[in-house]
Write a structure and sequence with these properties.
heterodimer; A: about 500 residues; alpha+beta; Beta-Lactamase; Heat Shock Protein 90; 3 domains; five-stranded antiparallel sheet; B: about 140 residues; alpha/beta; five-stranded parallel sheet; about 20% strand
């Protein structure tokens, strides 16, 4: 064994060095390809866990029994290296005495001596490092997979430089393929305008007050897709309690969020429907009770009274009650029928045609009120709707507008349809008496609520109208000023 | 005082013409109340009470329906609360309705201005009791 690359060691130093190396889990070998002479250091045996008499010191034994078969080629290449310029080092697996194959780093050198070329090299046990590397790679891969599958990424803001870093999943959610570096304000620009102040505030509070946050906001990706994201962050503090870094997750929660929102809106709709049904039950009971009560009252009076003229009058009232009872039953029938109509389904209907039908049905009323009706269906001439509903809605609005016209002026009515995206709207505006919404707003669409002292106020129209509109997934809103007029805005679909 | 028999005027505030007719007829036959005033909605009643010309001819008790156009029973209760202290004599208010809606019942019963909530049809016995307590003010339960 010789150590002479520019420095010379005394014999004592050399044995010292050899001793040091032998105790350092490092094995040294030397091989002469011509004479096939092989030397192994004591450390060579000990790194593998053997004693010198347990294994045969030969190239053949090493190659056939110690070296893992898949690593043979890699190793051989390093032995060529001094001649052919291949790699000097290789990671190979060798069979240890007690622990199966372990990873070693093998480095090969070449030296020319008087006896010809000699190869020598070092073996270092790198098993622990190698295993750790493999594990890290595995967990990195796992983290990557988890992030990819859960659509969740990690980001970080350095509080001093305000440098923003994204994991590749964050870029995926941003739909930024080129992974360009964004500043904090640039990243905030990706959020929908109404949410930008919320995000800004959250980041600022995390930086200055060390407040963590967890927000769900709408976001526009680089490819112009609007999605819901969950942005969660915790500040990382230094010893003085100052925020040095904000670290957080960024997750695409679009599916879950949209499902949640849809669920919430159908819960609200059901809730409303439930309330209206209960109201309906109370109102029906109120009306039936009041007719029944009056009937009993009159029958009792009839028996108590002896005067013929009183009896005639009482009987007249009994007749009126009986008529009211029938018409109440008629309204109930209408409501049930309305429910049946929806099962017939929707079809493409033309606003103009439906309007013409309603106009001719109410012709006498329109003429006697001297009403002026303007329509404009050009922006949305057609709609997929239950024809009977559309007719009933228009008829109710028109009847109301004529019934509650202002006494001092001629009724002017404007009916317009228009589109907003896929939604179809209708506005119905009159210049009639108007309704005091402060007082009656809540009851406006209730049943049997009348706000004007008209003899023919029945208080059923708007209740029906609203039910029809909502049954098809629309909604209705109203603006009104007393003595100016009323405007209904209906989202039909 | 308790031996004195008072002249009792009642008022009915209801848009239901048949009920009003029946109420007047029935109380007439039964000899309940000495006089009955009728108003077809809350606003008519409030305007009457407010008018100083009527101050010598106010009712002792008012039966106020809940569901009425123009000014309903709830609005009447509020309006009455505002003018009550300026009235020359106490007036007992009863809300009457056919509504069995619990929200209506508790709303009326919770109002200190309202003596009670009576469900239509009104019971003869209860009306008689109201009349007699008003007739004998010394023995009556003062609601107002």
């Amino acid at each position: 064994m010789s150590f002479s690359d520019g420095h010379t060691f005394s014999g004592e130093s050399l044995s010292h060095l050899a001793h040091l190396i032998d105790n350092k889990d490092i094995g040294i070998w030397e091989y002469n390809p011509d004479t096939k002479q092989l030397k192994w250091s004591a450390g060579f045996y000990s790194v593998l866990g053997y004693t010198p008499d347990e294994i045969e010191c030969s190239y053949n034994y090493f190659f056939e029994h110690l070296l893992y078969y898949q690593d043979k080629q890699t190793f051989v290449k390093t032995t060529y290296s001094p001649r052919l310029g291949g790699p000097r080092t290789a990671h190979i697996r060798l069979l240890t005495k007690n622990n199966g194959y372990h990873w070693f780093e093998s480095t090969t050198h070449r030296r020319d001596t008087a006896e010809g070329m000699v190869l020598y090299g070092i073996l270092v046990n790198i098993n622990a490092i190698k295993i750790a590397q493999v594990k890290t790679a595995e967990s990195e891969l796992q983290a990557l997979e988890i992030g990819r599958i859960a659509k969740i990424g990690i980001w970080e803001i350095d509080s001093r430089s305000m440098d923003l870093k994204f994991s590749s999943e964050v870029y995926d959610i941003f739909e930024l393929n080129n992974h360009i570096k964004l500043s904090v304000p640039e990243a905030i620009e990706f959020f929908m305008p109404q949410y930008r102040p919320i995000v800004e505030e959250a980041v600022n509070q995390a930086l200055t007050l060390c407040k963590p946050y967890d927000i769900e906001v709408e976001f526009r990706t680089a490819k112009n897709n609007i999605i819901w994201v969950k942005c969660k962050a915790v500040p990382v503090l230094d010893e003085y309690g100052r925020c040095i870094t904000i670290r957080g997750t960024f997750q695409d929660i679009d599916n879950v969020k949209r499902r949640g929102l849809r669920l919430q809106s159908s819960i609200n709709l059901l809730d409303d429907k439930n309330k209206r049904l209960q109201n309906f039950a109370y109102i029906v009971s109120h009306n039936l009770r009041s007719h029944a009560g009056n009937l009993k009252f009159m029958v009792d009076l009839y028996q108590e009274t002896k005067l013929a003229e009183d009896r005639t009058e009482i009987f007249q009232h009994i007749k009126t009650i009986s008529e009211s009872l029938s018409s109440t039953m008629g309204y109930l029938d209408d409501i049930v029928k309305m429910q049946a109509e929806i099962s017939k389904g929707t079809k493409l209907v033309e606003f103009q045609k439906i309007f013409d039908n309603v106009e001719s049905a109410l012709h006498t009323n329109i003429v006697s009120a001297d009403a002026e009706i303007h329509t404009n269906f050009s922006q949305a001439p057609f709609i997929n709707y239950v024809p009977a509903y559309l007719e009933s809605i228009l008829q109710n609005f028109l009847t109301n507008a004529l019934k509650y016209k202002h006494p001092d002026r001629k009724p002017v009515i404007n009916i317009i349809t228009y589109k907003n995206g896929n939604e179809v709207y209708m506005t119905f505006e009159d210049n009639g008496l108007g309704i005091d919404l402060e007082r009656h707003g809540e009851q406006l669409f209730g049943m049997y609520k009348t706000f004007h002292q008209n003899a023919d106020s029945k208080g059923i129209g708007l209740f029906m109208t609203r039910n029809q509109i909502e049954a098809l997934g629309g909604n209705i809103s109203v603006e009104s000023t007393v003595n100016i007029g009323t405007k209904f805005t209906v989202k039909l679909v | 005082m308790s031996s004195e028999i008072k002249y009792v005027t009642a008022g009915i505030v209801d848009d239901d013409k048949i009920f009003t007719y029946g109420f007047k007829k029935f109380t007439g036959i039964k000899g309940l109340f000495d006089e009955i005033l009728d108003f077809s909605n809350g606003l008519e009643a409030i305007n009457y009470l407010r008018d100083p010309r009527n101050s010598r001819h106010l009712p002792d008790v008012l039966f106020v329906d809940i569901n009425m156009p123009v000014m309903d029973g709830w609005e009447f209760n509020d309006a009455f609360g505002e003018i009550k202290s300026r009235l020359p004599k106490p007036i007992t208010i009863y809300n009457i309705s056919s509504s069995v809606d619990l929200r209506d019942i508790t709303r009326a019963k919770k109002n200190p201005l309202v003596a009670d909530y009576l469900l239509k049809p009104l019971s003869e016995a209860y009306l008689t009791e109201i009349f007699h307590t008003l007739q004998h003010p010394g023995a009556q339960l003062q609601y107002s």
